[in-house]
Amino acid sequence: MVDITKKGSASDFFNGYKYIVLETTKESVVSEPIKAIRVTDKYISLLAKQEIIIFDNNGCYKGKVSHQGHGNHEYLGIEDFQLNNDTLWILSRIDKKLLSYTISDVFLNEITLNDTYTEMLFVDAHRLFLASANANSQQFNFILYDTEKDKILKRFDPFDRNQSMVFDFPSFIGKSEDCLYVTHPFDASVYRLTQNYCCPVKLKTR
Q: Is 3 in a helix, a strand, or coil?
């Protein structure tokens, strides 16, 4: 529990920290604003100008994935991305696609989705949650998807009206050993999302 009326320090929330200087090369220079950063046990990846730049956790440049376009194995835009093991997955909302590449920029796979989604989060090697943020025609905020079987395993959190527009509002806000913590627009609640159910979290009040 965090007491927001009192001042705190970083040590109240973190065990330690370190600086990582990212290697500067001709290929890794970022000339556009960084839109998102993802950190895993092995990699640091940046989204800028519709391309993903990848470093290892020591800051050494590993590669870049840049395939914006209308052709095969390309995307019109990047809505979200995630490194799952050594595979980079890109979610393109406008294309209704998931695309995967190696960190050395070799195309692996392309999956056509049944609707538009705004965020993704892998839970294991092949399964991930996709979030819609109240803005798709299927009218479910979350689906559990299997990339190996190329099928929807389960749908969660139905909504009544397609809002048709996407807000800069995160759906996945945290996780524990047994669930993800999620939110969605127009609702101040926090929800527990598992592979079986989605339900509101009962917050303790004084």
A: coil
